[in-house]
Amino acid sequence: MVCASDGREMQGVLARESVDLCILDIGLPGKSGLDITRDLRATSDLPILVLSGRDETFDRVVGLEFGADDYMVKPFEPRELLARIRTILRRTNAADQRQQQARPPSFRFGNWVLNAAERSLSKADSGDQVALTTSEFELLHLFVTHPNTVYTRDQLLDAARGRASFAGDRTIDVHIMRLRKKLSPAASDAEVINTIHGVGYSFVARVSEINQGLAPNI
Fold first, then answer.
1. Residue 178 phi/psi, 5° resolution?
2. Shortest CA distance to 183 belongs to which of 113, 118, 106?
3. Which CATH architecture best describes the domain 1-101?
4. CB 37 within 8 A of CB 66
5. Is the predicted pLDDT of residue 88 greater than 60, yes or no?
6. Contact at 8 Å (CB) between 216 and 179?
7. Where do the domains of the chain lie?
8. 132: exposed, middle or buried (C-beta count within 10 Å: 0-12, 13-18, 19+)?
9. CATH class of 104-218
């Protein structure tokens, strides 16, 4: 484990060291942890776990919108922190292994293409890509492979984190909000993720699988 006291020192560590995961405190001197998260996410898919002394929904939203994979509030239980770290690393390693295996199909819905092999989301008409965090990709991949299926928040959180979720954790609502914002940037765009009140969410877009030039409906 390597420690850094501020953003500048962190940049030096990342330039020298091979880092698997970053635990980032929001309250750093100089550039805040949130700004560092945003800047880092613009150039890297390094998993980021944000620590904060604030438990307001707004702060969680900002942290996750800036690209954090998970968000924990201080003070925290060290065993829970360790569990979340292990889960993020397990999910990241599993994603890398899937990418090294046989090339999986891509999926098209509306004007979007989700490339499972590249773990990327792009517009079908222009090819412009939209960045996804690891959690966002896992959620969207689950949705497009199981459209019109109703998932509870806990089931979606398990998919996003790759483990059994902690009771009462509503972080999934923030991930869904981020996905909706990316998939439907204009007010006129049709919503593709429906809220099932009292239960969870369902992906309602028509999905086609793209594989070797074929696109059968699923």
1. -65, -45
2. 113
3. 3-Layer(aba) Sandwich (3.40)
4. yes
5. yes
6. no
7. 1-101, 104-218
8. buried
9. mainly alpha
Structure token pair of residue 175: 């991930």
Paired residues of 200 in beta bridges: 152, 196
Check: CB of residue 49 under 8 Å from CB of residue 68.
yes
Residues 6+ apart with CB under 8 A from 186: none
* Cα 180 from Cα 117, distance rounded (Å): 22
Structure tokens at 144: 């497009």
In this structure, the number of other CB atoms found within 10 A of the CB of residue 21 comes to 18
Q: How many residues does the chain have?
A: 218
Render the chain in DSSP notation, one character per residue. ----SSHHHHHHHHHHS--S-EEEES--SSS-HHHHHHHHHHH----EEEEES---HHHHHHHHHTT-SEEEESS--HHHHHHHHHHHHHHHHHHHHHHHSSPPPEEEETTEEEETTTTEEEETTT--EE---HHHHHHHHHHHHSTT-EEEHHHHHHHHHTSPPPTT--HHHHHHHHHHHHH--STTSPP-EEEETTTEEEE-S-EEEEBTTB--B-
**pTM above threshold 0.90:** no
129 DSSP β-pair partners: 122
Helix 153-161 to helix 78-100 angle, to the nearest 10 degrees? 70
The closest of 137, 148, 139, 158 to 202, measured between CA atoms, is 148
Dihedral of alpha carbons 126, 106, 95, 168, sign: positive
In this prediction, residue 168 carries a pLDDT of 52
Which structure tokens are listed for 179? 């996905």
What percent of the chain is predicted at pLDDT more than 90? 31
> Which residues does residue 121 pair with via DSSP β-bridges, in sequence order?
114, 130
